[in-house]
Write a structure and sequence with these properties.
single chain, alpha/beta, Rossmann fold, six-stranded parallel beta sheet, 11 helices, P-loop_NTPase, transferase
């Protein structure tokens, strides 16, 4: 059974899968792409709420035991000492996670927002004959309607962005470390050093020249091959955007974490 659990969260297309692929090189760690636990967590909370007539028999202490048991049973076969569970939803669950796992921390991967939109649009165009789960497998639309869809409150990007702000400005911000995609891809050693220091874990030498991760089956089922592809070598990808200039500019000032005046709780950023 794992001894400690931490969480990877943040924005889409911002390096969470790459970070997990690097962390799992450490034999003491278990990490992977986004999984089902956050959804199961929310479903259990709902079933134990007042909408269920039998909730009168359930107290908070019991709810907590059930939810802790969810993690323990899901990772029961994991031999690693430290588990990292990944989901964009964890940024909305910091108060609960702080109670269930007092020593846990959340690593939130972030990226300049227009480049997230650009990255998702590239995936859609690359898979022109496969409608994506990102848009409920609906074909058609324009780059503008697709950007509006992902940036909306329930969209892939908009939900994660709002969740990140909730955690960043909330009471449990001291549990949060922001890892910028730009740092992770250009200076992976510095980014990983910050992660280990934040978690209080002994240093480990990672191989950024040989990174291995395969989620091809999941991506194919989602109608978005390449969604979780991790290159074998960590490196920055300098390129021109494929977004129209006005659309790119629309998101250009959304990286709130880059403004020190908007960090009243002193969240660590690397």
């Amino acid at each position: 059974m794992f001894q400690r659990i931490h969480f990877i969260s943040g924005l889409p297309r911002s390096g969470s899968t790459l970070l997990a692929a690097l962390l799992r090189q450490n034999p003491r760690f278990h990490a992977s792409m986004s999984g089902p636990l956050a959804g199961l967590f929310g479903a259990l909370l709902g079933e134990m709420s007042a909408r269920n007539e039998f909730s009168v028999f359930i107290e908070d202490t019991q709810r907590q035991r059930v939810l802790r048991g969810l993690f323990e049973q899901y990772y029961a076969d994991t031999q690693a000492e430290v588990v990292f569970d990944t989901s964009r939803a964890w940024c909305t669950r910091l108060p609960a996670l702080a109670t269930l796992f007092p020593d846990s921390r959340v690593i939130a991967c972030v990226r300049e927002v227009p480049w997230i939109v650009d990255s998702l649009e590239r995936l859609i165009r690359r898979n022109a004959f496969q409608p994506s789960s990102i848009f409920n497998y609906t074909a058609g639309g324009t780059v503008y309607t697709r950007a509006n869809g992902i940036a909306g409150g329930e969209g892939m990007l908009g939900y994660a962005y709002d969740a990140l702000k909730e955690a960043y400005f909330g009471d449990h911000a001291d549990r949060l470390l922001l890892v910028q995609y730009e740092t992770l891809t250009r200076e992976p050693a510095r980014a990983l050093e910050a992660v280990y220091d934040f978690l209080g874990e002994p240093a480990f030498r990672h191989d950024v020249e040989h990174v291995d991760f395969d989620a091809a089956a999941f991506d194919a089922k989602a109608g978005t091959p390449g969604l979780h592809v991790v290159r074998p070598r960590v490196q920055a990808d300098e390129r021109a955007t494929i977004l129209p200039p006005d659309l790119f500019q629309r998101f250009a000032n959304d990286a709130f974490w880059r403004d020190p005046k908007l960090n009243p709780r002193g969240v660590r950023i690397v």
